[in-house]
Specification:
GO terms for molecular function: hydrolase activity. The protein is of the alpha/beta class. It has eleven helices and nine strands. α2 links the parallel β1 and β2.
Length: 363
Amino acid sequence: MVEGSMTQGAGQGPEVERTATLRDFRVPAYVHEAGPYVHSAHPGEVAPPPGETYPEGYTPTERDLPVINRGDTVQVTVDPEAAAAPQADTGQGPLYVVGDVHGYLDELVAALQEKGLLDAAGNWCAGTARLWFLGDFTDRGPDGIGVIDLVMRLSAEAAAAGGYCKALMGNHELLLLGAKRFGDTPVNSGAGTATFQAAWLLNGGQKTDMDRLQDHHLQWMARLDAVEEVDGHLLVHSDTTAYLDYGRSIEEVNDTVRETLTRNDADEVWDLFRKFTKRFSFRDEGGADAVRSLLDTYGGTRIVHGHSPIPYLLGEVGAEEDEDNSDPVVEGPHVYADGLAIAMDGGVTMAGKLLVQQLPLGT
């Protein structure tokens, strides 16, 4: 992948001719029952067909990021007794953040167990610890709904133990909400007519997720905050300054996003999705100033985000057709923009690593 081939958002690239067959897809009806998860086909099959190329300019009518064929999932062996860290019985517990999950439930559980947040049975065991997910729970991977169900369950279990588990709105939550609500309804796009359904399919939408999507999942996603500040860390999903378009305070941004979703106007929700899909604002020249514009407005001394995989931020990912291209190596969060930004998307969809990190760094 050539650096810079993903620009910051929709409507900035050339007009792309849409494949007519994409409009033949319809959003399945609600499934009003929840049963045990049946593993879907290997996530590698959502990768683009051989020979497919991506336009220089990005628009949500095209894939946001290429889905790189992954090898078999690497399972992490965890000794729960060794991993579990003792927690104080009272007071505020340690703070953790989780990068993009994209349906990789097994990897998420293993990473949380490795940090001592879940026990061997997958239940909350971290007492008063505080856990924040940075968004993007679904698409590309095999079990996005299973991930949402886990986060919802952990929210209740952590609260009962005196801690908490909370989540932010990612662009893929907006995409899934839009695909469910609006389907093939045309929306205004800078690259011509688009639909949420087509964008969802092109960005790794999984039929198994849509088939299992229920009202309580939709309500939960629609109520997620977009921005939060915790212990001096400004938490957002996307590495973009587009949040400034929605308010001059954290409360105003979150209220504006929720009000936009409540009005249920397809063009408004598309514009919200388009702006939350922008990326790389902190990476290049002027990146530190972009971070400061957010910190000066919303507070905090460092910004923590997901969205843009660390291998892309580092320029370490080559072309997909390159047989010699090795899997990206991600050891942990990426600190950049004069030390003001912490990237947390370890690139789990491209055989990278699903990151769970205690903050501040070094603790």
